Amino acid sequence: MKRIFIIALLFVGCNRDLSDDPIPYNNFPPLVLSLGFPENIKLAVDGGYRVIGAIGVRGVIVYRTNSTTYQAFEVNCSYHPNEAASNVSVHTSGLYMVCTGCNSTFNFTGQPTGGIAWRPLRRYRTELVGSNLTITSDVLN
Q1: pLDDT digits (tens, 9 = 90+) for 52-65
Q2: pTM score
Q3: What CATH number is attached to the domain comprising 39?
Q4: Which of 15, 54, 98, 140 is 20 to 30 Å from the Cα of 76, by its Cα?
Q5: Residue 3: how many CB atoms within 10 A of its CB?
């Protein structure tokens, strides 16, 4: 009986923790970025990004995929999002995003690529009209 308990404990202890909470929802008014303004200069090139702290739960990372496609990701990590250190930022290489709390990594589609996070980052709707990029609180995933 003792042996069965120890074996069961090992299996439970080795499983990935899938019991974390979802990212809280935060409804915010649409934000329009004029891409010609100096503060948005990094969004003028493919792979450029800007962090906007005024929207989302903990802010939003806006990333330019190409001249017509922009992504907007919640800064709040998808793994244990209620923990204070659960924040995602763009790695200094600019090649991926990383959570400072759990060290999970994410590609620029928001999918986890390493670490313990198993859900993608929250992605918000973006719409480009002329040189104005609108970010809304509509969640795409």
Answers
A1: 998 999 999 999 99
A2: 0.84
A3: 2.102.10.10
A4: 15
A5: 7
